[in-house]
Design goal:
Layout (H helix, E strand, L loop, with lengths): L2 H25 L1 H39 L4 H9 L6 H17 L3 H12 L6 H15 L5 H11 L7 H14 L3 H12 L6 H13 L15
Helix pairs in contact: 2-3, 3-4, 4-5, 5-6, 6-7, 7-8, 8-9, 9-10
């Protein structure tokens, strides 16, 4: 390699270094910012998760403390004091308060809670339907017959979250109206429901017998294999 070629290569390398340093001075902050954003984002996510977990634990502790109150009236009052954050928590607490108020024989207060939940379009459908079912059970024969059956018909539709429980309540209403055969037929359908719990199956069997029906061998629940 000649001295001239060596000189040209050294000059070219020097120009490359100058360009590199210029680029670094101009854009070198970008990778630093990216690193800071990644680290900061990870730290924020960890803080947010820790805060959510702490809030959930605090809510759980407050609910458990309220539920440990021995008398129903005191329990309902304690539940009313638990702070809520968000519609999901509010709905959950309202259902718990309604249960305690019903147990304390404060039927009107319980129904007010349940009807409020059932009428809110911003509440998830399973919560609304659970509130409807509880309200139907609580009202019982005091509710208009056609309204009662219409609600139970809707709640016992295929795919409904509380279908089997609603079927049971519908059978009880039919028996109350004097439609024994329809009630027994519906309870036999309950025995064939795949989502029916063991306790509900046994209860359906007992109701069938109590209503004067008979059980076939194939529909007897609670037998051990």
């Amino acid at each position: 390699m000649s001295d001239n070629d060596s000189f040209i290569e050294e000059v070219t390398e020097e120009v490359r270094r100058d360009k590199l340093f210029a680029l670094y001075r101009k854009y070198g902050w970008i990778p630093v910012l990216v690193v800071l954003l990644v680290v900061g984002g990870a730290a924020y996510n960890e803080w947010r998760k820790a805060s959510a977990e702490a809030a959930a634990e605090a809510l759980g502790d407050a609910v458990m403390t309220a539920l440990e109150v021995p008398d129903a009236e005191g329990r309902a009052a304690a539940l009313a004091k638990v702070p809520v954050d968000g519609s999901g928590t509010e709905t959950f607490m309202a259902l718990l308060r309604a249960a305690s108020e019903a147990e304390a024989s404060d039927r009107d207060a319980a129904l007010a809670q349940l009807d409020a939940i059932a009428s809110r379009s911003d509440v998830a459908a399973p919560y609304r339907e659970l509130a409807q079912l509880k309200a139907v059970i609580l009202r019982g024969s005091d509710q208009d017959r056609s309204e009662r059956m219409a609600i139970l018909e809707h709640l016992s539709r295929a795919g409904a979250p509380f279908r089997v429980l609603a079927m049971e309540q519908k059978a009880l209403a039919l028996y109350e109206f004097g439609n024994n055969d329809e009630a027994i037929a519906l309870l036999r359908m309950v025995l064939d429901e795949p989502n029916a719990t063991q306790g509900l199956l046994q209860r359906a069997q007992q109701l069938i017998v109590a209503m004067g029906g008979s059980l076939s061998d194939g529909n007897e629940a609670g037998t051990e294999g």
